[in-house]
Every structure is written in C-alpha cells, then in structure tokens.
Design a protein that fits this description.
The complex is a heterodimer of chains A (about 160) and B (about 200). Chain A is about 65% helix and about 0% strand. In chain A, helix 1 runs antiparallel to helix 2, helix 1 packs across helix 3 and helix 5 runs antiparallel to helix 6. The termini of chain A are far apart. By secondary structure, chain B is an alpha/beta fold. Chain B contains eight helices and six strands; from the N terminus they run ααβββαβααβααβα. In chain B, the strands form two sheets. A four-stranded mixed sheet of chain B has the order 3-2-1-4, sandwiched between helices. A two-stranded parallel sheet of chain B has the order 5-6. In chain B, strand 2 and strand 3 form a beta hairpin. In chain B, about 40% of the residues are buried. Classes of the chains: A mainly alpha (about 160), B alpha/beta (about 200). At the A-B interface, helix 1, helix 2, helix 4 and helix 5 of A face helix 1, helix 2, helix 3 and strand 4 of B.
C-alpha cells in the first residue's frame, strides 16, 4: 500500500531536531536558524508533490543540504568587510555558539561533499549506506569523503588545540 | 571525536523548537499554510480548530483523537497542515465572545469540505435554528424535504465537523430530550444553558 503524506505539522515535529543538528554542522550555529527557516519553507512549498512519504527524513535533509550549499555560495560572493575580521575561536563572543565545540563549527568550512559526508556520518550518526543513498553516491565515495573531511578537521589548529 | 561534532540532543531539541515556532509564523505570512490548526480555551474544554483559506473547517472537542483529526485534514483537505498562530485568531475571538454571552451568532466563513452533500443539507438547515431556539430531528428532516430521514439527520448532526458554530446542539428529540451530542451530553447541556434554552 502506498504510504500517505502525514500532516506537515507531524513531519515538522518528527524532523526538526535532525535538520537542526545537520545545519549546525553544515552552516554553523549562527546561521543554522535562518537556513532552518529556508529549508522548511522550501519543504512546505514542495510538500504536496513529495513522492516519497516513506523517506521524509532523507527528503528534508536533501533540501537542507541544497540550502546549505546555496548559503555557502552566497557567502562566497558577498564582499568581504574591510578590515577582514581576524581569525578567532568561533565560540568567542558568539552567544549562539555557547556550548558548542569548535569542531562543530569547523565542519561547515569543509568542501560540500566532505561536509555532508561528515555531517551525515558523524553528526547525525547515519550508516554508510544511508549516507550514500542521501548523497546519491556510492558507499566507497562516502567513506572517502568522510575520511578526507575528518582528516582535514584534524589538521585545523582549532581542532588539535581544543 | 564524534562527540565533539555534535550538539547535544537536548540542545538540538530546544533550539529547533524555537526555530520551528519562527517557521510557523513565516509559513503563515507567506500564505503556504492550507490548513492552520490552533487551540481555543473554552468553558467546555480546549477546542482544536482548523482554518483554511475558505474558512473554518473544523472545531473539535478535547478528548477527540487529535492525531486522527490531523490525518483527516491531510487526507481530505491538504497535507500542508501547520499549527500556525494568528490564522485562528478570528475564530478564537468569536468563540470567546459567544462563551462570554456577547455573541448570539457567528460571522465566520465556513469551509464545508469535510461534509457529505447530505450533511451540508442537514447542517445548512441547522444553521437557521437561532440562538435560544430548539428544533427536533423530525423538524430538520422536514425542512430538507426528507421527512422520514430523522435517524439519518441524527447521524449527520453527530458527525458535524463544525459544532458550536453550526449549532447542532439546538436539535433535540421529539419529546424534548437532549438524546445525543458528538461532544457528549454534558457539553450539549452547557451550551443550551448558556443560550437560556435549558434551565
């Protein structure tokens, strides 16, 4: 029997924490809230046309991933304020970052594929198979991206000095 | 290492709750909500109301299965059901006025999509029974031209998706007994006392 779409409210309650955790890793704790809004507004627009009611968690994570990518591209196009802010420990003076490890904030700066592989595998705790399905790629590619991502995180000063 | 990549489950739950509240307001403002649900406190218990762009579609009493109701809205109206604050304000205001004794009829637009054609006839006739008056099941059956259908009329009234606003509580048995009510007889009694139809 084909599964029906649940009421959006039920879907929102079931997936909001998952999406939020992913976004904190993908765009950082400060912007997570705004991208959360964009993700669920896009999800609500598309909801009646969603053809996969059995896998709504994957569906909304794919939307969140696209919104995170858009966010990074827009940020890259924005002119850098002058003088450029000095590198700082991200939690410093940033109220939204309270209680978050610097490592969380380092994930967002990884290349897209590595970021999603690390976020899905190590932040959300999804399996290699689930991550591969979500990213539309192979298990080997997931393992490679997650490995490269974690390696890069380890190389960061904020990570090793933490 | 994994632990340092995560915000705690509690923190994600708390932050996402606030973010979801902000989302509901934005979704409503953007006109993306097809069925806005909200609650209204009343002397007959908390009411769950559902409003669509066409009007008020449902009023449900406390104790009705809310998950089942939301599923029904998703199935029969639209899956874009959101607990959007604000969208149910007009309904809340008119219900508050009614329960305070400051309103005798409702001016709300109604969405009748949760009714069968027969129910629309029955509930249309019921809407014309005014505050402080009563009608019998037989009288409603007569008024819709189905004089032998009083039992079916009773069933249609019992399934009224918009009670209180469509005053099915004003329909009683031929002997004046209250007989039945979708929300339970004590609520029917309360509403009729409020309207002065019952001492």
């Amino acid at each position: 029997m084909k599964r029906r779409l649940p009421p959006f409210e039920v879907f929102l309650e079931a997936n909001r924490a998952l999406v939020y955790r992913y976004l904190v890793a993908a765009v950082g704790p400060v912007d997570a809230d705004d991208i959360f809004q964009e993700t669920f507004l896009a999800a609500l627009r598309a909801y009646p046309r969603c053809t996969d009611p059995g896998h709504l968690d994957r569906w909304v994570l794919r939307i969140a991933s696209r919104k995170a990518i858009d966010h990074h591209r827009a940020a890259a196009r924005r002119p850098v304020p002058v003088p450029a802010p000095p590198d700082r420990p991200a939690a410093d003076g940033d109220p939204a970052a309270d209680g978050l490890g610097q490592a969380v904030q380092a994930v967002r700066d990884l290349p897209e594929r590595q970021r999603d592989a690390v976020a899905y595998r190590h932040v959300l705790g999804l399996s290699v198979a689930e991550t591969a399905s979500l990213m539309g790629t192979t298990r080997d590619a997931v393992r490679a991206n997650a490995y490269q991502g974690i390696k890069r995180l380890k190389e960061r000063a904020t990570w090793t000095n933490d | 290492m994994d632990e340092r990549l995560r915000i705690s489950t509690e923190e994600a739950a708390a932050r996402s709750r606030t973010a979801a509240d902000r989302f509901r307001v934005a979704a409503s403002a953007d006109g993306l909500v097809d069925v806005a649900v909200g609650t209204v406190d009343s002397p007959v218990g908390e009411l769950l109301v559902a409003v669509t762009p066409r009007g008020l579609a449902s009023v449900a009493f406390e104790g009705q299965d809310r998950d089942a109701l939301l599923d029904r809205f998703a199935r029969e109206l639209s899956p874009r059901v959101v607990a959007a604050p604000g969208a149910t304000d007009d309904v809340r205001r008119e219900l508050d006025e009614y329960f305070r004794g400051a309103r005798r009829h409702f001016d709300l637009r109604l969405d009748r999509r949760l009714m069968t054609p027969f129910m629309r006839d029955v509930l249309g006739a019921t809407s014309r029974v005014s505050f402080g008056r009563l009608a019998t099941y037989g009288e409603i059956a007569d008024r819709i031209g189905r004089p032998t259908a009083s039992r079916a009329v009773g069933a249609a009234l019992g399934a009224n998706p918009i009670p209180i606003v469509i005053p099915c509580h004003r329909v009683v048995g031929a002997n004046g007994k209250l007989t039945g009510y979708g929300g339970g007889l004590p609520r029917k009694e309360h509403l009729l006392r409020l309207e002065g139809s019952l001492l």
